[in-house]
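Researcher: Hi, I'm a grad student and pretty new to this. My advisor asked me to get structures for two proteins we've been looking at. I'm not sure of the right format, so I'll just paste the first sequence and hope you can take it from there.
Model: That works fine. Here's the first sequence with its structure tokens right after it:
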Amino acid sequence: MNKAVPECLIIVPSLTPNGPIKGAIALANGLGELGVRVSFVALKTGPGANSLLLPDVVLHELNYSSLFSLFQMRANILKILFQRRSVSSGAVVVISMCFSADLINVLLPRSTKKIVSVRSDLKDNYTMEYGPMGHILASIHHWMFRFIDVVVSMNSEMERVLSNYKCRQIITIPNFINEVDFKTVGTPVVEYPGQTIIFVGSLTNRKKPFLLLETVISLNEQGSDLTLLFVGDGPLKDQMIRRVSESGSNRIHIMGFQESPSKFVRNCDIMVLPSLSEGTPRAVMEALYLGTPCVMRSLVTNDNLVVDGVNGYLFDNDEDLEVAILKALSLAKRSFSTHGLLDESFSQNTCSKSYLKVIERLLE
């Protein structure tokens, strides 16, 4: 008797190409490569993230503008589930990422096999983004997990935090990237002088881009020959542009959103991400995959990603960033023909197989 082909439906809030959506796309493609039939559901449209999906992944765009359409979203997803069950003659596992997608997952029938992938420390992130209201959002989000069959964390520290809540089962599967996107990476039109540092991410207080900005200004004033690129948008962008203008520096570039930041990352000497909190940052994983050493704050969640003197440096306090940057600039970049500076445990194939084991167990 032939083994049934696993069916999986992945739900995300939108097709905006941010970290969690890229993670969902990497998972969809990774499972597809392993023979899983994957449907990818976006609750609303976005600027073209669907172009990253492999042809075998079936895309559904629901195009709802707000959570006020919650039950219409649920009805549409139930329709998709019914269609998939008709094709597969069996159960379909639903995987969701982020608040709105997790909420829809919770509202699906109890008989549905459900997985949630948690991408960060919810309490820290929501509080930094939304202030006191963030505590309430995090509490609601954690409460939802009690209705989920398996909650997937990205590292042991996240698993420890989630163990404080009433989750049925928690397992750890590392974050990973969509490796096919980095097999051929173009080079930027502009070549920058000196050694080049890049920051990729949102320009928010949690990410601490101003710390990096002031550190590079200081290093250049001390005689270093550094160019700094900021790739990303956010509420601090205008303030940063004004500060660069005030400094008189022509070596710092606020580039805004870039559809393909990897072509810049590959040609930079190091990436610096001084965030106050992270899950397992996708930007750093992409940089390491391309062979670019990284500097990060010494957080429990970062210790298994960056090893001092091997693929970058970690720093403890803001005042230590300067020394960490100078040390990282001395590291030689490696070829990205395999996984560059990224440990094999973060490979797409390895992590997708771990998800497949969970899916098959739920379908038994």
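Researcher: Oh nice, that was easy. Here's the second one.
Model: And its structure:
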Amino acid sequence: MGGPERRFLSLPNANVVMGVRIKGRVSQNPLKSAVLQVRQKHPLLGVRILLDDDSTGWFIQDDVPEIPIDIRPRATNEDWIEVATEELKRAFSTETGPLMRMVLLQSPDVSDLIITAHHSICDGRSLVYLIRDIMNYLGYRDHERESLPVLPIAIQEYLPSSAAVGWLTRFIITRMNRKWLRKGISFNTKDYQQLHQEFWQKHHPSIFRWELAPSQTTALVARCRQEQVTVNSALYAAFIKAQRHIQRNSHEYFHNILMPVDFRERLIKPVGEAVGFYVSVVMFKLKITQDKPFWEIARTIDKRARQKLTNKNIFDSQKISLVSPSLMDGIIFAKHGKLDDKMAVGHVKRKGLDKLFAGIMVSNLGRLEIPVDYGDLHLDALIGPIAYSDSLEKVLEVVTVGNKMYFTMTFGETLIPKNTVAQIKDTAMKYLEEAVNPLWGKSKVTHSKVKSHV
């Protein structure tokens, strides 16, 4: 495991959930066969995690059980709600694996397949590729079998030279590790389980899901091209403007802009469409006034983001691979009040890990060119990705497939009231509509409001 993957091990909120609504009959045996075949193609679907004496983590492929598939009857379009919220909170047995499980909500004509994975083996784009592969094996029984020869982890040899960590940073981290290791602090499975249990006693996730019709999606993309900004910049402009309108400037962290970046294409060794963790985050600060024009805000965000998109910034998070794994754990335990160590607590305070870091993070996977028809099966809708953060007030995940743009917003009711998030969502979509008009069209946005489940 690399450092970015290893840090997820002690996080109590390390699950990622994604679903697909399928029109057509999905039966147990064909699904089981399809899952076995995608496991052969994507090695990380069949791993467990072994910790050695210094807490270094290793992905192990031996003696890993099959990916469990729980099949339940599907009664309504909202049945996935309870499944998704349950799955966010349900821990994986990382020692035995696998680090993925599925629930099929089945009915004769429409089924929802809900996939849950540990974040150490995937990102949002990976799960979309995985859904496509499962659909291929379901829809075309003679679909060619594929496999990847090695575990697709973005280790040092995959990184461009411009991402190299400087000698001073290496020196500082080495000294920090030595100081930490002299303390002899370590954590075991029972510690992880207790942290997980106490975390989810405090946090209650809620989700809003909605989508744009094809005409609206096309209109938004066309207007962004006209204004020479990315769709992501336009979405960010809408939501931070709405946040500013509804919540005012009540928190300093509202000015922090976080943008997840997929770095697959920047690696010097290609990983293609592998299932793995290939995401980093760039950040900058931005203060806006409520009367600033929408597209001016979008252009400012776009310009600032492009300035940040250098290999040095994108791969900066890879330096965590130099940090002692037990120190990574110590920082997480200190953040949640489970370790009273001056060094770990000091790091939490300096980095602000004990506070909310941003009002919203928009993660747009973009337009993914994958089919919607697979033999007799049709990909009717995507659900998610869904990930819960206790450091971000709101997380908005966006993906476009089949000329439909899907939105999923996750938040915690212990952090922000649900009605406030609903107001922000509705106001942001109104800002988008006003900015895109007259290209927006008369189609109504399709909403799915999701209640929290404790």
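Researcher: Is there anything I should tell my advisor about the second?
Model: You could mention this: The radius of gyration is 22 Å.
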